[in-house]
């Protein structure tokens, strides 16, 4: 299967990579798979802690609102890379759960600002605090140099994806 059909297939240019590097990249890929599975479980658990009916897309919207403050629905759709219909359904669901409010945007009378409710913000912050504590507990047994190296390598990897 080629790279277009298999997102995990190595590109044709990978043939020139030495065996040791190829094996190391495969090991990194396996670790990323484990990390992504755990991250998804964590997101589902955090969402359920905020509200038992909160879906992952709604959690993503709350995460953006927690970072940015109130936003127009179109800006939220852009941030999560969702079409307007999906965002509209998500916003309606969040509003029904009492997690967000919509108010008229004073700078654009045709638009509404979406904001987290106080209760949603409190629950969101509590779950974020718990998640940060888990990360702290895992990394606090490491040497400070190892943690800094991990941060630098992740930064380098993230920068290369732009």
From TrEMBL:
PROSITE patterns: HTH_MARR_1, HTH_MARR_2. Residues 29-159 form the HTH marR-type domain. The keyword Transcription regulation applies. It holds the Pfam family MarR. One of its GO terms (biological process) is response to stress. One of its GO terms (molecular function) is DNA binding. Keywords: DNA-binding, Transcription, Transcription regulation. Gene3D superfamilies: Winged helix-like DNA-binding domain superfamily/Winged helix DNA-binding domain. This is MarR family transcriptional regulator. The lineage of its organism: Bacteria, Bacillati, Actinomycetota, Actinomycetes, Micrococcales.
């Amino acid at each position: 299967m080629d790279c277009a059909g298999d997102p995990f297939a190595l590109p044709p240019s990978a043939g020139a990579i030495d065996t040791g590097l190829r094996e190391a990249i495969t090991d990194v890929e396996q670790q990323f798979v484990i990390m992504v599975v755990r991250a998804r479980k964590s997101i589902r658990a955090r969402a359920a802690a905020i509200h038992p009916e909160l879906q992952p897309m709604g959690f993503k919207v709350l995460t953006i609102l927690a970072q940015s403050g109130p936003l127009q629905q179109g800006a939220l759709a852009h941030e999560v890379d969702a079409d307007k219909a999906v965002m509209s359904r998500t916003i309606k669901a969040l509003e029904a759960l009492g997690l967000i409010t919509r108010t008229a945007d004073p700078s654009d009378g045709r638009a509404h600002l979406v904001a987290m409710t106080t209760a949603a913000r409190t629950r969101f912050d509590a779950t974020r605090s718990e998640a940060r504590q888990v990360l702290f507990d895992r990394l606090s047994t490491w040497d400070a140099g190892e943690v800094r190296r991990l941060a630098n390598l992740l930064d380098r990897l993230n920068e290369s994806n732009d």
